[in-house]
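Appendix B, Record 12. Input sequence as logged:
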Amino acid sequence: MSAEATTPGGMARERGQRRNVLGLRRLGRAAVFGPADRPHRLPDAIEHVAQAHRRHHPGADLATLCRAYLLAESAHRGQYRKSGDPYITHPLAVTLILAELGAETTTLTASLLHDTVEDTDVTLDQVRTAFGDEVGHLVDGVTKLEKVDYGAAAESETFRKMLVATGSDVRVMSIKLADRLHNMRTLGVMRPEKQARIARVTRDVLIPLAERLGVQTVKTELEDLVFAVLHPEDHARARDLLRAHAGRPDPLADVAEAVRGVLREAGIAAEVHIRPRHLFSLHRARLKRGGEPGPSDFARLLILVAEDADCYAVLGELHTCFTPFVSEFKDFIAAPKFNLYQSLHTAVADASGHAAEVLVRTHRMHRVAEAGVVALGDPHRAAEGEPGTAEDGERADPTRPGWLSRLLEWQRQAPDSDTFWTALRDELARDREITVFAESPGPSPGPEGPLQLPAGATCLDAAYARHGQDAHACVGARVNGRLVRLRTVLADGDTVRLLLAPEGTSGPSADWLDHAVTPAARIAIQRWLAGRPGGAEQAPPPAAGPGHPPLPAPPAPEPAETAEEPVAEVQGAPGAAVRLARCCTPVPPDRAIGFQVRGGAVTVHRDDCPEAARMTGDGRPPLPVTWRSASIGCRVTLRAEALGRPELLADLTEALASHGAAVLQAEVEPPRQQRVRHTYTLRLPDASGLPGLMRAMRRVPGVYDVSRAAHAR
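Logged structural output:
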């Protein structure tokens, strides 16, 4: 787990990193080469770790840490990093990062030992025997899989293994993030191409995971380090801007002093700090403004108070005594982010009229905002009064029910490493969540509970999140009481009622992949299509996802369906493959004509099909077609015009099922003047039953017309 380089991430952080690295080098060499004749004292090499640990946990027992260090030091003795430093400096640095974030003793013990099983002769059983199952689970979770066993898939399968371990204990990912942070700090001795590869994986996977786990301190430094490797020119520009700003008086100093005076007069005990932006945040601000940052864009005000009510009292004073920018207000206390973050965001005008951004939060919120899940400690045994503790004393891990549960669910279905790796990056690229509420599908709909979905999710994603594989039978949905298409994008707070056809009577179509965004839905649809004749060929390639270049699309096939048996004869093209066009779905005894297409096949259209008229107008010669038999299976598209009423979709679905029609696709257009249009693509076991099916649909109350659909491609 080693990578090596010092890359600057802001002047203050840069100086702090240099001091930390130099200190660790001295302590690491002292630990390896120095005397060991003080059995009653901690080794000098972990004294600074112990001090940081005691600041957060004054009563912590350091004996376990000492034993873990001695085992790690002896196991790694004689090993060196590419920088020339003793290898023990790496686990020490990782442990110090976690200690400064407030991690408890078990996490620090595992971080000291996190590379022993991977890089030394120490076995996992030895770690479990000496330090317990918890430490063994954490060490196993961050141990890489061997390339000898997994080849090119080793990296993606290692992440899969790590995420599964994180599902039962989020401390696994805390150790991995600290490990990657130290490796990114010391990346400079690597070849440039390897630096870029590691930085890209960090950008696409580790930084989004740090964001989801709320570890903002690690996330912001990783962003700066990746920024320096992948965009050195923009990084240098942002650094020069920050240095130039540091040489001038800070305009926020006067605003901060004015805010302190206002809060003092209001009797609100608060700390007011100027919080500088990090380099990548400054770069984002430049891009957002489309020009050079203003004088107030280099930092934000951070106000810390004791209680939640004080946050709103501070907000009231700010909006009363200063001119607020209302569009900048966000309340993440009443509605916390999915990564534990809580704070009030606002902006007020400074003396020159520029917007000064302000964050208001309690000291507890600030600790969680900086350290995220690390601040939660042991997810299985919470200390009294810590954030995330339920009333009965059990740990209420807020990261488990949402994005992590979704990720763990769909990774079980990912058939191979490439699919998993692509889906993981796409999932992590969606950095916002919404909550929708599912209703029961029965005759008396009622709430079933919330569904956590990524922003941009559709009714299809909700169906697979709620019903799993049973969502293959979904034929429609009601959102906030209105019938909508399955492709409808959901908004935060929507109520969704999913409508399912009887089992075995319906299934996904290839264009569902155009509207499903969650990996769970996409993987399930792709597997269903791949299990049907021609399904894999019909499925479009996976979407590239945000932040990735679009994948090249294959040439669009002729909109036709190959018949399972030769059901029609085409005069003038003996022996040619016959396909039934999907635009008009011809069936016996329709009057039909054929047109020769690429590859020598013949596409059969109804003679009144607009697509057939277009090809005739283009000068393509039509070929006469005769049907061999009317007693064949067929595919057909029907359009039902009806007056909108409750349960209409359910009644139409029942009529289809009673005639043995399998629903391949269903669309419900939004009501217009109380009229709705339902379009169904069906598979019929016998074309001769089509007239009877259409009569049965017309008998459904409210339906006033049923017709064959025909549309241009």
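The two ends are 54 Å apart (CA to CA).
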